[in-house]
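We treat protein structure as text, and this decision shapes the records that our systems exchange. The tokens are whole numbers drawn from a learned vocabulary of local backbone shapes. One such record is reproduced below, unchanged from the form in which we store it:
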Amino acid sequence: MMPCSLVAGATPAIKIIESSDKLDVTIDGKPFTTYHFAPTADDPEWHRPYFFPVVSSDGVEITADRDRETMGQAKREHPWHRSVWIGQGDVNGIDHWTHKKKLQQHVKFDRVGDNAFVEELAWEGAEPGKPVVTEVRTVKFVAYPDGARGIDVTTVLTAASGDVQFKVKPLNVSGVEAGWLAARVSGKIVESKQGVITSSAGATGEKEAREKPANWCD
């Protein structure tokens, strides 16, 4: 996160502006992120809520929406990587990671406050009208006087139509990926240009980092 100049000790003011399909979040009047929770005419491939853009305190977009970036291309690279989102590759055999027409449907907001919201969602199942899980998603936005910003996400899932299994393939095996809370960083922050991926387990480079579990993973 990139800091900006702020009065020492001042607490940045966070504000959420709600409309029919999105929540716009500002910090001290400047854009931080937009939470897209419903499909719109200019977003025909919407499958699940996502945050885009995510902006640092000095105005730099630090995430990428690969759906928008690859629209119209013959060969599209990971168009389901939508900035910051929640997804899972195999929920009772249902792909809630890529764009396989299974939606995380927004049901309602239980609360929208100055710096947080609570949302109810239904993850579509194999049969119409029978979600595989329901979710209560609590999101809190955090801002610090030094310019650092954060998105804190807590999610509670409840089996909605019988038992639920979440399956994960080993990271070094090709196939449907898992995910959960995921982020696609901006093309300005990639290994080939400005840095090298290093994990908490000491793995370096994308291939080794994908194959070796990080220290905080179970």
Remarks:
- The chain is about 5% helix and 35% strand.
- The first helix runs from residue 66 to 70.
